[in-house]
Write a structure and sequence with these properties.
8 helices, five-stranded parallel sheet, globular, Arc Repressor Mutant, subunit A, 243 residues, 20% strand, disordered N terminus, 2 domains, alpha/beta, Rossmann fold
């Protein structure tokens, strides 16, 4: 049976963000903590206790963002992520993974599947809110020069429409992959460290490993096909877009 919605009153005078967030978490105390803090910030929250319920709820009403625990009953978090990303109705939902796992392989897998961000338990409510705001800001950001198009090596980056084409064929990228490609392509020939790339596309103080950035680059190159070779590895430093 679908879980009844929890209603949490927002303090009088609190600003309302208005975005709809789906919290997918089987630990009720953690779920309530997330629900309470996000609701106080003005977000509209719904909660699911397992993966199957999460998929059903997202189909019924597509959220603006999903907070997804990886350790879930019935259908685990990675399978939920796969389900979201292969369905045309839910594939554009930004996902922040919430995990207690210390093994980074699960985080890397989630990023490969298209998750935008992750946060590990235990976490500070302030950090959680900052991550949510950052992901939603990237999703809803207005491009200052939205007429700009970057073209090089057979790759066309249409910033206004948030689309990428390789030899005039559209390429489906996640938000992070698009930001990564755009960041490098805007300054061809410049060499950036992994942490400079992280700061540029995720913001400062983002706890990411070298492995996570490497995985995203590998995935981006694969999607770009033969044009992926123009994202060059600079050994011992980082990456650059071929000049």
């Amino acid at each position: 049976m679908p879980q009844a919605k929890r209603i949490i009153l927002v303090p009088k005078g609190q600003s309302m963000a208005g975005e709809n967030i789906l919290i997918i978490e089987d630990e009720e105390d953690v779920q309530e903590l997330i629900h309470y803090n996000l609701s106080r910030e003005g977000y509209n929250c719904r909660s699911a206790l397992n993966g199957r319920q999460a998929i059903e709820m997202a189909q019924e009403s597509v959220p603006d963002l999903a907070l997804l625990d990886l350790m879930l009953p019935e259908i685990d978090g990675l399978e939920v992520c796969k389900s979201f990303k292969r369905d045309s109705k839910t594939k554009n939902i930004p996902i922040i993974m919430v995990t207690a796992k210390s093994d980074e392989s699960d985080i890397v897998t989630g990023l490969e599947l298209g998750a935008e961000d992750y946060i590990t338990k235990p976490f500070s409510p302030k950090v959680l809110i900052a991550r949510v705001r950052a992901v939603l800001r990237r999703k809803n950001a207005d491009i200052i020069d939205d007429s700009q198009t970057i073209e090089a090596h057979g790759i066309k980056i249409d910033i206004a429409r948030h689309k990428v084409f390789v030899k005039d064929k559209p390429v489906e990228l996640t938000s992070s992959e698009f930001s990564l490609l755009r960041f490098l392509a805007e300054k061809p020939g410049w060499v950036f460290t992994r942490y400079q790339i992280v700061d540029a596309i995720h913001g400062t103080d983002y706890p990411v490993t070298d492995r996570s950035i490497d995985v995203q680059v590998v995935g981006l190159r694969k999607k770009l096909g033969s044009s992926g070779k123009f994202i060059e590895t600079v050994r011992g430093i980082g990456y650059r877009f071929k000049e």
